[in-house]
Fold this protein.
Amino acid sequence: MYGFEAMTFNIHGGYLEAIVRGYRSGLLTAADYNNLCQCETLDDIKMHLSATEYGPYLQNEPSPLHTTTIVEKCTLKLVDEYKHMLTQATEPLSTFLEYITYGHMIDNVVLIVTGTLHERDVQELLEKCHPLGMFDSIATLAVAQNMRELYRLVLVDTPLAPYFSECITSEDLDDMNIEIMRNTLYKAYLEDFYRFCQKLGGATAEIMSDLLAFEADRRAVNITINSIGTELTRDDRRKLYSNFGLLYPYGHEELAVCEDIDQVRAAMEKYPPYQTIFSKLSYGESQILDKAFYEEEVKRLCLAFEQQFHYGVFFAYMRLREQEIRNLMWISECVAQNQKSRVHDSVVFIF
Amino acid sequence: MGERGRGCCPPMDLMRSEPMQLVQLIIPIESAHLAVSYLGDLGLIQFKDLNAEKSPFQRTYAIQIKRCGEMARKLRFFRDQMSKAGLPPAARSVTQDTSLDDLEVKLGDLEAELVEINANGEKLQRSYNELAEYKLVLHKAGEFFHSALSSAEAHQREQASNQTGEESLETPLLSEQETAIDSSKQVRLGFITGLVPRDKSMAFERILFRATRGNVFLKQATVDEPVIDPASGEKVEKNVFAVFFSGERAKNKILKICEAFGANRYSFHEDLGKQAQMITEVSGRLSELKTTIDAGLVHRGNLLQTIGEQFEQWNFLVRKEKAIYHTLNMLSIDVTKKCLVAEGWSPVFATKQIQDALHRATQDSNSQVDAIFQVLHTREMPPTYFRTNKFTSAYQEIVDAYGVAKYQEANPGVFTIVTFPFLFAVMFGDWGHGICLLLATSYFIIREKKLSSQKLGDIMDMTFGGRYVIMLMSLFSIYTGLIYNEFFSVPFELFAPSAYVCRDPACRDATTVGLIKARDTYPFGVDPAWHGSRSELPFLNSLKMKMSILLGVAQMNLGIIMSYFNAQFFKNSVNTWFQFIPQMIFLNSLFGYLSVLIIIKWCTGSKADLYHVMIYMFLSPTDELGENQLFAGQKMTQVEQSVDGEILFSPYSILIISDETLVLLLLALVSVPWMLLPKPFILKMQHNRHQGESYAPLPDTEESLQSGANNDSHGHEEFEFSEVFVHQLIHTIEFVLGAVSNTASYLRLWALSLAHSELSTVFYEKVLLLAWGYNNVIILIVGIIIFIFATVGVLLVMETLSAFLHALRLHWVEFQNKFYEGDGYKFYPFTFTLLDNEEE
């Protein structure tokens, strides 16, 4: 029923779309960021944030603040909002909302498994997990010794189970394996999410496929850059790329054989949407790449709000909030460590 | 009204909002805090934010505000602790003078003490909870082992008798183990006991099974009461479990899983004697801990008690300080850092009081320099401030809910005080119901002092706020009820006996032929004889309908006259000549005429059909009215004949043909272009003239320096002729159509009044009289109860609400759209009296 969402969308999705648009208007603006960047202490940041929607979450924090507290409270707000939306949602929106959290789930699984590998305390690791990606038996992950056990013990109960079909091996876990596992899982997750959105059809499919394709391409570039100089073979690398997106399939062929960052650049510049990103970088400067990608992503996410009657706004809102929390974390860190000159390095203005 | 200067009328404060002035205060920095505090007590000045471009933490007093915020946080913490302990803060006692610094230290100490006590208490509580859990495990696990042992023995005996060695599914695992141990001396089984949250127990069991590939035996028993979890301190439903396993690797895995599930493990001995010993030991320690915890709680309670005594006072002080510093932050600081410059609006009458407050502040703070007070000139629109009292404020609220009056605009609130309850009463005419309302509202008014200090519910609060509105509403509905002669829909012969009597003593033909008039007309209101007669409805409908139109036309005329006063006040003669006068003519030539006809018809008893008159006035204005003629000259082709009004109403002139309606129609038609065309052209002319002049004078430099932010409002507004014309067009169309639709809208007075009286008749006759007819006490009681509920629920509550809403609409739409702009903004003075009410 493409083009006819306007007739029926609001029956189930109208209330939540209104809610999410309301949430979105609570995002910090460029003026807020300007003020935040001028803060001298963390208390200043708290004072400024207390005038925003974060106010109720921070007002009862006693004075010597830490960056982690700020980030934790801000994340708590996001989680509260997410839970509110999830409880109000009906099918298929509730599934869509759940899909948004799978990415965090994968990150959490990897975090715990890596942590136990390096013999960290499980409780300490649990505190570091993103609250959106929590599931019941997450702490049990520490028991597993290899992928097969990991799957059989814990993950079979989680929504991540189907994504594991690619990477069940009996090899013992090590850093390399885990990283491959993360990327394989992510690939399966993105593809599944992509298929789900296509199934939903309409404006949701159109907008989400654009956003997810960007995500997939960004991951492909990151995988390529990070695997340069490691023992990952070209074929293995090729296997980690998601099977959709702008770069699929010919871009992937080129990326798979890249040996240094300049080759990546050469491969990417053939794609007009990414040309602008790479043209900003001077040669050999890869750390700004993240920021450039984030900026592009934020731009695309904001555009998702321009259209009505689709689920993309939920995805976009969650992503924007996460970006905002990343910004707040960066600003607070810079303020706390007296590195105010670097404060603009990583902040991505949303509006 | 409006001519306060001329002195012909007494001043009406409510009619025009208070004259305001923009004042500038230059306060030496040492006395600033005190001065702002005094001004807050006074509550007659609204400060402007002069640092709007600065972010909150860049302002001068950011640190103090942060301190206040910190103190407020501590106070919130105390309040939280007190409400958890069930201690309400005491009412505010006498205010001692404590300085902010002392208070800060004190609050800090108290918080530290409280936190320490809490931490100690928590530690003790935690170990107490752990022991309590341990005790539970000892009991429950003891039961497992006991039952397993007994069944094992039974099984052994059975085995001994049968010697079959076959195993059934029911064979207890433990007994099997014992037999295994007996027979082959194999690996000894380990076991772990503990507690796991019930909602996780299924997953726990599943994971255990998977992790050990089924080589495990888990036994669980539910604990009936929720257990307090030592880690979180919350009540959780839990299961006691015992896991049996073999081998060291399995043990490690199980331990890890236990940890992951938040299952608390407790050691347990198989030996029965040791178990008993453990139980007594644990119980002993439990009771010991209990006394320690209780002592700690008493100490904490005492501390909270002392905090509670002064809590409200501290809270108020902190809020007050915070408000003062927020205000100080709005002042701009002088370059020399010696004084603060404040700008704000204040009513003209408050000048003396403000100066006094500033002077007192200077003296009390031993400052060398006095604060400077000066009035600034500005073109900015001042805020609207009405000095209302507890009686008038509710009526002003009704007007403000629609829109705050423009500065010094004629305030409809003055008339609302009477017209609002009156129009309500027209729809709610029943003096029985009126008395009920009056009783209810007098309860609120008598207990005013007590009720205003406590917090009421949402709806109660609203009713309480409008108590004086309801009082007038009820008084007026008693009045209209007497006119309608309705008391719970029962008529009374209050003022005289009915004027009508039956033709014969048996009263047989009362409903067929009718009654005859025996006495003088009933002196006040509707004759009770109408009630229940066949012609009751047509009679009352005609009465109420005509009355509604009369009231409506009167109120709309009042609205148009108000626009005249506005035009006079703001010296806008264009509005007088090209808005007020044609509007008056238009409305009165159509509906004023109708009203006159109604009155004449009432006075003369003519049988003319007014519908016919009004409709044919448009359809064929030149035709003769025939029997519908009410007075001479009603149709008149020559204007001269109509001039002398006296003749028209003289009794001789009835039924003499003449053509006045034509004149009225022509007047109404002429007034439409009169409203529409001249005003935009005149405005354009005025604008062009102004533009020619405004090249010459340069902006007054001194003034523009002083009132820095507002010089953008100095220039003339853009003049767009088409916009003005379209605006005037819309306005004219709105008025012309509105004259018809608004008059029709006033018929709601009749409709609601009809609905009210019919409803109360139904409840009275179909419930009360019906029940009465059965001659049965029970039915009568039930009937009375239903009647009371219906009367209170439907007539007193819902009807009041609907009549209120309709009266509101008649004021907002039909009355106020004739003159009221309502685009002003309210005067919000900086005052401490509001601090109490606002909850954070």
User: Anything to note?
Assistant: The interface with chain B takes residues 35, 38-40, 43-44, 47-48, 50-51, 59-63, 122, 136-143, 152-154, 157 of chain A (CB under 8 Å).
